[in-house]
Amino acid sequence: LVAGLIVTGLLYSLGAAIMTLTVIYRSWVSPEVSVMVFWVLSAIVLGLGVKFKLPTWPMIATIVISGAAMTTVSQEIWIFGLSILIAVIIAWYGIWRVKLSYMNIGAALFLWLLVAKFFESKISFTIKGVVLICSGVALTLLNVAMTQFKKRRVK
What we know:
The protein contains six helices and no strands. The chain has helices at 2-24, 31-51, 57-69, 77-97, 100-120, 125-154. By secondary structure, it is mainly α.
């Protein structure tokens, strides 16, 4: 367990160092590369957590992956598409395993990415407000449906 914690700390420290260097030296590493490095390091931590049945590692890795994905709204379209795919996979995993925490992280990330991209556009503020309200309603309905499903499944 101690070795695992050290490995996790080193992996995330490496990722944080690369992201810091990206901010300091823009020409050295592109923002897309730093996000991809963070995703790879988080995927390694996620895999190790699942393999060795460590309960908190998958959630920590999921949160780090989501945090890195939130920065991709203004980046290249392919990395934004990967962020959308990651959000859908996290939400699907939460639905499949009936875990509200993962479903909420995935759904919130998905909505964050869509709404943030939408707000970059030149559409009127009224339509932007309606989309934001609809996103909140959709997330609430998803939570209500999952909670009811979870209650029925327990019985």
